């Protein structure tokens, strides 16, 4: 089985977000970058599937050379090889078009992404890839088992889940609990250094959005504390002051 | 020129988030001097559809195909693409949901459209078409310019307040055939809690964390939720330990909620949890540790033992009715 996993490079989930240059640039000083958490679930499941059914796991990333440490981490976790498309990931449409161009001739059995990237929270790349490659796409996928040429998938829906049967190949946007995150071991980290990482130049160059500026939410006012012995006062305040009851 | 809005339903009723999208469509159509049109897919009574008129759009296209009774992104995207072309839509609006995210990306390709997800207010059309969207999981916003002729927006909750109009709708029944390839995913089983208020739709959410010690104490959360007409949520460790189902887990890696009121009981307020709730209008925190980080994000707080405080809250909430 031939699996492609798309990984984004995003600020760690504990990052404090701020902007510079009159709110037109993301302030990356002090920011630690990680593989998107959803993408890491996708990668972990891909490796489990490879272990169970044989095959290869390739990771693909659209980004500049600074992001190679996260690609090496994906290789250390267990991917066999990597492709970096050498371009700034301008928007989801750009990313999906570049990945589709590379994937089109490779006949992957499964293309996995995260359900969304945690920077721009687009949640779009999986369905764009599906449409561009003329493949079915499903998201958010929380369970994925393979049985021959068929896959059994659980998809989260509001208030529950649905179970789906679908033939390979297809695209899945993944989320937990599809797999446990894998911690790279020493052998993985050593071998990652020599695993193939191919750099290709972008070829499609499709862009149809421009980010103009950023804003932070207004600062929160002070918290109003209520005496724990009279919690009914809270209900009163929610009714008369906040007017939400 | 028209503004097309997809109104998603749940259990035969149009969801509140869709009614917001309908009102957004009406307001935007007025701004753009166009006409707002709503589309529903699946089977709805005329009574259920009348909610769309109340929310501000009178023209409703109803695709009541038996094959499309269950929501599925791929065929829905094909149906919406065909209708968007037929109606000469320059803007297509969807509420933000797992179904609509999956529709939106496919639709963007089919319509050669620019797209923004999680849009939080009406666009600025004074020069170009600019939208404000939530980024970094609610920690910031970006202004984005959409440069294609056709634009697709998915809307964050509370992007506009739903209108309360009295207009009657005119419903047109449509037949649209979808390609076989769109039916590749076969839904074999659906597990859905019926009758519960959906977490993403709820005006009030009561959520519990590890401070509640175990699933046997969850009646504190569910009873308070019931008394307030609220949905229930939880922190990630709570769903990881299977005290509660996964779809209740709120935060960075879980559901993002944006209710009028979020009540957090025994949740510390880790940044990943806050990421899922920070766009709530009011936040109430109940925690026995005065230093719990959640209080920094709270509007109202009680420093106290949940096992003492919450039963009294439930009593007081019951008296509200
Ligand atoms: C990549 C990543 C993603 C994550 N995503 C999420 C996410 O989406 N959602 C999420 O929730 N977490 C997420 N987390 C986990 C997060 O970091 C916290 O560990 C988690 O939110 C803590 O849950 P908690 O507040 O229920 O538990 P704890 O941190 O253990 O807090 C329990 C709280 O209960 C209070 N308490 C104890 N007893 C009582 C009592 N009797 N009465 C009142 N209060 C009491 C304590 O003072 C404490 O503040 C993520 C972590 C990582 C690394
Ligand atoms: N720059 C990128 N390179 C490779 N994959 C990406 C990139 N950005 C996003 N993705 C993938 O697409 C998913 C959804 O991203 P998005 O649509 O941007 O929210 C992510 O979870 C990744 O799996």
What distinguishing features does this structure have?
heterodimer, A: 245 residues, alpha/beta, Rossmann fold, 9-stranded mixed β-sheet, two-stranded antiparallel sheet, 15 strands, 26% helix, 31% strand, B: 321 residues, 2 domains, 5-stranded parallel β-sheet, 8 helices, globular, binds flavin-adenine dinucleotide, binds adenosine monophosphate
Bound compounds, each kind once, are:
flavin-adenine dinucleotide, adenosine monophosphate
End-to-end distance of chain B, in Å?
47 Å
Approximate helicity band of chain B: 25-40%
**Name of the CATH first level of the largest domain in chain B:** Alpha Beta
The largest β sheet of chain A comes out as: 9 strands, mixed
Identify the strand order in the major beta sheet of chain A. Answer: 11-10-9-12-8-1-6-7-13
Distance between the termini of chain A: 55 Å
Helical run tally of chain A? 6
* CATH topology grouping of chain A: Rossmann fold
Total number of distinct structural domains of chain A: 1
CATH superfamily of the largest domain in chain B: HUPs
Strand content of chain B: 25-35%
pLDDT averaged residue by residue of chain A: 95
CATH architecture of the largest domain in chain B: 3-Layer(aba) Sandwich
Q: Major β-sheet of chain B, in short? A: 7 strands, parallel
Element-by-element helix/strand order of chain A? EEEEEHEHEHEHEEEEHEEEH
Structural account:
The complex is a heterodimer of chains A (245) and B (321). The longest helix of chain A has 17 residues, at 37-53. Chain A is globular. In chain A, the strands form three sheets. In chain A, strands 11-10-9-12-8-1-6-7-13 form a nine-stranded mixed beta sheet, sandwiched between helices. With 245 residues, chain A is an alpha/beta fold. Chain A has helices at residues 37-53, 68-77, 92-103, 125-133, 186-192, 232-240, and strands spanning 2-6, 9-11, 19-20, 25-26, 33-35, 56-62, 81-85, 110-114, 137-147, 150-157, 160-167, 170-174, 197-200, 209-215, 224-225. Chain A has one domain: Rossmann fold, CATH 3.40.50. Chain B is an alpha/beta fold and 321 residues long. Chain B folds into two domains: 2-183, Rossmann fold (3-Layer(aba) Sandwich), CATH 3.40.50; 199-320, TPP-binding domain (Rossmann fold). Chain B is 26% helix and 27% strand. Chain B is built from eight helices and 17 strands. Chain B has helices at 16-31, 46-54, 73-86, 98-111, 219-228, 236-240, 271-274, 306-318; strands spanning 2-6, 9-10, 13-14, 35-41, 59-63, 89-95, 114-119, 130-135, 140-146, 151-155, 170-173, 186-192, 204-208, 231-234, 261-265, 282-287, 300-303. Chain B has a seven-stranded parallel beta sheet, with helices on both faces. In chain B, helix 7 (271-274) links the parallel strand 15 (261-265) and strand 16. The longest helix of chain B is centred in the first third of the chain and has 16 residues, at 16-31. The chains are: A alpha/beta (245), B alpha/beta (321). Chains A and B meet through helix 3, helix 4, strand 9, strand 10 and strand 11 of A and helix 3, helix 4, strand 7, strand 8 and strand 9 of B. Strand 14 of chain A pairs antiparallel with strand 9 of chain B. Adenosine monophosphate binds next to helix 1, strand 6, helix 3 and strand 8 of chain A.
């Amino acid at each position: 089985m031939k699996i492609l996993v798309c990984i984004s490079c995003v600020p760690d989930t504990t990052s404090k977000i701020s902007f510079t240059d009159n709110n037109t640039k993301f302030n990356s000083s002090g920011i630690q970058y990680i593989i998107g958490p959803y993408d890491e679930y996708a990668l972990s499941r891909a490796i489990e599937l490879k272990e169970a059914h044989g095959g290869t796991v390739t990771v693909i990333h659209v980004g500049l050379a600074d992001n190679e440490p996260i690609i090496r981490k994906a290789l250390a976790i267990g991917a066999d090889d990597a492709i970096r498309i050498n371009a700034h990931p301008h928007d989801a449409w750009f990313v999906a078009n570049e990945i589709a161009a590379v994937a089109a001739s490779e006949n992957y059995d499964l293309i996995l992404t995260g359900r969304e990237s945690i920077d721009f929270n687009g949640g779009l790349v999986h369905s764009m890839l599906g449409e561009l490659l003329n493949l079915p796409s499903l998201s958010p996928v929380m369970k994925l088992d393979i049985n021959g040429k068929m896959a059994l998938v659980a998809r989260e829906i509001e208030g529950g889940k649905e179970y789906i049967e679908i033939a390979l190949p297809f695209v899945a946007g993944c989320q937990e609990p599809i797999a446990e995150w894998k911690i790279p071991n020493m052998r993985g980290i050593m071998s990652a250094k020599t695993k193939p990482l191919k750099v290709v130049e972008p070829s499609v160059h499709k862009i149809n959005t421009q980010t103009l500026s950023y804003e932070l939410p207004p600062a929160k006012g002070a918290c109003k504390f209520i005496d724990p012995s009279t919690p009914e006062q809270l209900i009163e305040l929610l009714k008369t002051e906040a007017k939400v009851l | 020129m028209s503004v097309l809005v997809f109104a998603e339903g749940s259990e035969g009723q149009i969801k509140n988030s869709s009614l917001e999208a309908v009102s957004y469509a009406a307001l935007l159509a007025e701004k753009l001097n166009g006409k707002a049109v709503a589309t529903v897919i699946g089977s709805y009574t005329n009574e259920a559809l009348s909610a769309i008129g109340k929310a501000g759009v009178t023209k409703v296209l109803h695709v009541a195909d038996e094959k499309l009774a269950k929501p599925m992104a791929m065929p829905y995207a094909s149906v919406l693409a065909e209708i968007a072309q037929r109606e000469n839509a320059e803007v297509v609006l969807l509420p933000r949901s797992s179904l609509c995210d999956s529709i939106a990306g496919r639709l963007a390709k089919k319509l050669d459209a620019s797209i923004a997800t999680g849009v939080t207010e009406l666009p600025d059309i004074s020069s170009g078409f600019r939208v404000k969207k939530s980024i970094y999981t609610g920690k910031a916003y970006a202004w984005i310019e959409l440069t294609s002729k056709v634009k697709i927006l998915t809307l964050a909750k509370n992007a506009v307040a739903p209108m309360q109009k009295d207009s009657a709708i005119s419903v047109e029944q449509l037949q649209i055939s979808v390609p076989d390839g769109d039916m590749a995913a076969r839904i074999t089983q659906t597990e859905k809690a019926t009758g519960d208020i959906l977490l993403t739709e709820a005006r009030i959410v009561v959520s519990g964390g590890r401070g509640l010690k175990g699933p046997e104490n969850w009646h504190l959360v569910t009873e308070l939720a019931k008394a307030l007409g609220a949905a229930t949520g939880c922190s990630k460790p709570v769903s990881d330990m299977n005290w509660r189902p996964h779809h209740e887990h709120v935060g960075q890696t879980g559901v993002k909620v944006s209710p009028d009121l979020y009540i957090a009981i025994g949740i510390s307020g880790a940044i990943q949890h806050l990421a899922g709730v920070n766009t709530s209008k009011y936040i109430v925190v109940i925690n026995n540790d005065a230093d719990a980080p959640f209080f920094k994000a709270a509007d109202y707080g009680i420093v106290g033992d949940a096992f003492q405080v919450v039963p009294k809250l439930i009593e007081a909430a019951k008296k509200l009715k």
